[in-house]
Design goal:
Shape: globular
Radius of gyration: 15 Å
Largest sheet: 2 strands, parallel
Helix content: 55-70%
Strand order of the largest sheet: 1-2
């Protein structure tokens, strides 16, 4: 059995997010996952694994373009959600799949 997913970990951390800076990391593969982690209360999102893997397959210029696309992607998602700030993003109503809904219910998480 594996550990907690990033979403599960962030849900578990919610009671202490006001006192601690939470960094989400592990398996983040695209800008939508960055936005989800930020919406769930993380202060930052680690994406080093994704971009280190890119070093083996793409040129420096392509990686820089990819980074810019990720930045644009997160900003676009926030614009579509009408959340100009991270504080606004964190107030956005969240929709969870059935697995996460069950996890939240079993763990008595909000």
């Amino acid at each position: 059995m594996g550990g907690l997913s990033t979403v599960e970990s962030l849900l578990e951390s919610q009671p202490v997010q006001q006192q601690l800076s939470i960094i989400a990391s592990g398996g983040v593969q695209d800008p939508s996952q960055v936005a989800k982690a930020l919406a769930l209360g993380s202060s930052a999102v680690g994406v080093a694994g994704y971009f280190l893997n890119q070093l083996f397959h793409f040129s420096d210029e392509e990686i820089i373009t990819n980074i810019k696309e990720w930045q644009y992607g997160v900003k676009s998602i926030m614009a579509m959600l009408n959340t100009p700030t991270l504080a606004d993003l964190r107030k956005t109503p969240l929709i969870f799949n059935e697995k996460i809904q069950n996890y939240r219910q079993q763990r008595n998480l909000k």
